[in-house]
Specification:
mainly alpha; 7 helices
Amino acid sequence: MKEKLFTKNFTLLVLGQVSSLFGNYILRLALSMYVLELTGSAAVFAGLLSAATIPTILRILLLAALSRFFVMGVTLVGLPFLVRTVLGLDARYYGAAESVLAVAVIAGSMAAGVLAGKIQKGGLSAMLAAVGLCIVPAGTGVRYAVLVAAFCGMQIAISMFSIYAVSMIQQGTPEYMIGKVMAYTSAITMCAQPAGQMVYGFLFDGCKEAVWLVLIPTGVIVCGIGVAIRTVNLKEA
């Protein structure tokens, strides 16, 4: 016997979400109109609208920086180290792995284009969680095929994440601030990448005989961050 979808608790949850979204919209509209009427200044009005977008932009920036730190550190340092040092395979295997990863990046970019408009704001956290889930198998047993498949999954998810993150930042930023915000975004994410590479370089050297101590916790942390951000988004909604 199938259970009914619209049970009492589910209906109350939906109604609560609807009233919350409605209240947020009314508050934002009423506050902005009040400020405009009180000051008569377009600059103050624009500043208020811009300030309302700051939390969302900062959250996306945080996710972008974390993805660069963890994922690029694991990918750019971990893959060559795992293939050449841990597995002891020659450059042909590493070259093949890099070629497959390049295809995965293209596939992720194409998927982002195909799914454009279908993925909501919460999709960013879901993509980050997917990256974490892909990292975990790489640490469960170091095998070449497993590593390549896991890293391909990471590249697809992170390619989609990067495209959507940049798109959402641009959509949520007032036109006169786009240049500055995108410059800050680029600077923050680019600084996070070498930091991640250095950290993971030391970690992989220290856990050469047990790389799972690096990969599995990293996967769990990245997945946990994605789930946590998703939870916060749902609560705010």
